[in-house]
Amino acid sequence: MSGTFLGMPPFPTAARAALADSQLRHNLAHATGTIRGKRAGVVAEVDDWEQLRLAGAAIKDNALRSLDETLLRLEESLQDNGVTVHWARDAAEACSIVASIARGHGVDEVVKVKSMATQEIGLNEALAEHGIAAWETDLAELIVQLGDDLPSHILVPAIHRNRAEIRELFRDKMGSVGMPAPEGLSDEPAELAAAARRHLREKFLRAKVAVSGANFAVADSGTLVVVESEGNGRMCLTLPEVLISVVGIEKVVPTWSDLDVFFQLLPRSSTGERMNPYTSTWSGVTPGDGPQEMHVVLLDNGRTRVLADEVGRQALRCIRCSACLNVCPVYERTGGHAYGSVYPGPIGAILNPLMKGVGEDAQTDSLPYASTLCGACFEVCPVRIDIPEVLVHLRSRVVDAHRSGPPSAEALAMRTAGWLFGDARRLAAAEGASRLASRLGRRVLPGGRRALGWLPWPGSLWTGARDLPAPPRRSFRNWWKDRR
């Protein structure tokens, strides 16, 4: 089973290690560049793309404003369709519900269709404590699981692996958990996919219980929707006798017609396709057809905390397309593991602090700073989440959360700057000192600009990685005095 993100260091520490991995950076640049190009091509075909974005944002906002009523309508519709509905306040409660259902059927394994909600709550690890193996059936998730690894992307969890690494994983690990990889397996994508298909088919035909997520939950009809590219979701949703779906409460939309907008936005934003290869919908139990027992676990786990934040609640619009990751210059260079969460990239940098709260641990508090605030994420978001706005909002909350404790180095620097700027004589003395310091390590940059090549600590923390423009030879104060 794959590990967890518990104990991950703050983003700057994790990012530094990722930046040193040249193979990782090559894999990320190739993959994100390819997806970006495909997305741009299919989005350009849609004349009313901006109107679709506005419509998607409006639908999600409408559902969030009336979430209490919409969720109750969803529960009633599901129950009318023969589905048992459970409410889970947090990860522990959700895992307990799923484990109890699985144990009640006496199984020692379940198959899963890719679900970030189950990764968020650590369901695989929780089931393992009860002696139940959870088999991932999405190809990328299978790769992550076989490698005892962690997901690093919302859409392509194994984006940090190349095909040669995947071949070695299949050859070394598949046989220990099921049907082994065929002899002479190459790193051709078609052969790797065929090996995964043979390995998973055995598990699909054997499993009695399946666990799924949902991309959308339609309140008026009690319908759950999963969109995917491989067909593994269809196998999980139709073959087992028992189906358990773990669904975040923000996934609800009021009506079936609302899906029309999202079925245009999601595939273009995620995989760069005009439509999803597989779209599965299910609305309850049908005698003699598909699972004969269905459960839906409606998961909070911090989502109501996000809903209470007037600026941050727009993060709950997210439809998990990963477009923001593919355009983010920070993500492209560090990968997803540096974010220390199942939700990486720009959306993870806001969603994790919003759901967990700030001021509790250094890792979470570091995430709002994992951004250049370039705004590319907002430009591509299909539901117009203004991620830079939320990042700035969260940075202010992180600062406020630490005001009562010992001042940080940044706070001390700001206080010192305020003290200098608060008195003309102190400012003049500082200007004189800066001109004196500029003689240390002065060098010429392209274009004739001058910079300080080195400063003593703590200034070396800046000059060790950046060019510090050299102060001018004459201050504005002296220039003004001479001019008068």
TrEMBL record:
| Highest taxon, organism lineage | Bacteria
| Alphabetically ordered keywords of this record | 4Fe-4S, Electron transport, Iron, Iron-sulfur, Metal-binding, Repeat, Transport
Q: Which InterPro entries match?
A: 4Fe4S_Fe-S-bd (IPR017896), 4Fe4S_Fe_S_CS (IPR017900), FTHF_cligase-like_sf (IPR024185), Helical_ferredxn (IPR009051), LUD_dom (IPR003741), LutB/LldF (IPR004452), NagB/RpiA_transferase-like (IPR037171)
**Domain 4Fe-4S ferredoxin-type intervals:** 315-385
Kindly give the Pfam families that the UniProt entry links to this protein. Fer4_8 (PF13183), LUD_dom (PF02589)
Q: Which GO terms describe its molecular function?
A: 4 iron, 4 sulfur cluster binding; metal ion binding
Question: Which biological process annotations from GO are given for this protein?
Answer: lactate metabolic process
Sequence ranges assigned to domain LUD in this UniProt record: 73-299
- Return the PANTHER family for the record: LACTATE UTILIZATION PROTEIN B
Protein name per Swiss-Prot or TrEMBL: Putative L-lactate dehydrogenase, Iron-sulfur cluster-binding subunit YkgF
Q: State the species of origin.
A: Actinokineospora spheciospongiae
